[in-house]
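Q: Protein A?
A:
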Amino acid sequence: MASIQTVPITRFRSNELLTFGRALETKLQDSDFAEAPTVASQLTAYKDALQKLDDSVITGGKSLYTTEMENADKKRDHLQSGFLGQIQIFQNHFDTTKQAAAVRLSPLADKYKGKTEKSYEEQTSITANLIQEVQSDTYATDIATLGLTEWITALKESNDACASLSAERISEKGAQKSLPKLADTRPVFIEAYNTLAKRFNALAEVNGDADYVELFNWWNALIDRYRLLLANRLGAGKGGTTDNGNSNQPDPGTGSEEEEEGNGNDGERPGGL
């Protein structure tokens, strides 16, 4: 009788397990069993466990916002350094009014010089303080005299963008921490797979295997493929013995005489090839 062979699923690496699981899911969704009530609960549990496994396989890594934050930080650095540099330049201006305004702003420029070397979040706070100071009554007139108001507007927009990206990255990290852990999802998926395979084998035994032979042929070929992958990775025999169609034989009398006489291949031993 055709049946689904056992599989050394616990030996799969997590990504192997996920790929194996997705391949089977796709095959079942494209089969006549996708909406079959006889396997509905087992298939639903399998899909749910597979998705949770997927969510937990790859976590952490580089933030989606890292590159964007790096670029935003560079823009902010250039604007802040450029603004402070303008104050330095105006101290040598031929217009004495502008020169005097620059001299009055000089202590402020010295105070914030080199602050672009601070950490991303610290610089956000420092830059916000700089903007607040230059917009105060103490410095606003001199800033306007030097025509630096637009520099401040651009610097504020850039700093606000940096603060927003930082908040978005924090939200991203929080979401990642809420994802299921692989140590929890892996055994649940393996159990769901075994339950599903057991259900199909039971149905084939009770109802006859005629409606299941095609699916089982593919399923067992998939398992054989992963046995060979395990053998190549772990060594000869570590994947178990390939089935080579022995589990795909229908009940006696359901196939042709030629088919019945031609079956009974010996399995290959993964890694011994």
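Q: Protein B?
A:
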Amino acid sequence: MPRKRHQKSQTKINAPAPQSQSREYSPAAQAIAQRMANGGLDYLKQNLIRIMIDSAKLAEEIEFKDLYLDSEKAAQVTERWLKKYDKRLDAAKKKNPDEYHKVADEMRVEIVAELATPAFRKAVDQRLQTLMARLMIGRDTKNLETVTMLTSALRMKSIPWGLCGLILEIYNRTMQQAMQEYDEDQGVFDAVAEALKEEGEEKIDILTILKHPDKLEQVGKKIFEAQPALRQRAEKQIWEMVDAFEDALSRGDVEMSLFSEEELMLPFQRVQAEFGEPFIQVQPSEEMRERIFDAVRQALNEIMTPERFRRFREEVDQTATNWLRTRQKWGAALQFELGYLDGSQYEENKFILAAFIGQVYRLGKEHKSATIKNRKR
């Protein structure tokens, strides 16, 4: 598979803000505003349950049709809360349907509370504002009243988002998407496993598959010829996994020590010499970031002699084997990266750059932590 990044489709959570321009609000909109102003907080309380239920239909409005939660996280969080509520749900189911629904609603409130991040809540509020602006000049008074009251209700800390029909609709379609993705993922794995069985393999798991790249290539050709749609799905899975791994690696979130401290300091020593002052005293700027990145690239080109590159690959290979054996989260991604460390000469590689930068971040955090401890003594 060529080392080419495929453009990923990402769920957008930032809706366009309402445009400020002179508008003539409809008589119906003015009537609703007057009714709510006269009723005040009591009007909201009296109609809160109806509004929360009716808001479910807003999920199909153009402002909300493309809004999803993180499907992978939604599946993980749901599974965890299902395990916590497993016994309670079973007990409630034996009593009566009402008791079961009550416990299930309680669980959904917990799930949504965990999934509704500040960014997601902000996106919902922005989209409600956009929708309200559109309805203000139309004739859909029922939806306008729902949106106006819902906007106020969701800003109250005392009202759980897991009771809102709109939010539950977004959660439900996110879970449907997660289930569809799981079925597609399983379809790819099952097709590969079945083809490997035909090749004589008995024990089929991700470790077996990745440890037989020659067979995997033969099997892949056979599968994709029979089921062309699987190729696109399989490639999408792989690139999403690799992108996520490299991002986590560059942030220092993955524990990998592939470079010595002397190697890590080399680009910074050069930048310091260039500016003629201690590196930590140099003012941060976009120009400085670009200069550091160029220095890292130059340092890697010098560090990675053929012998050093060979040892680097051996260490990555050993780490990938250990990670796969122990079911480490990024084992498959690291094994995949090995395919781009072939040859005897170093070539610039996003994985190696990410590993270097991530280790620099972790080293900086370690030094900072040690300094703070010394000051406290």
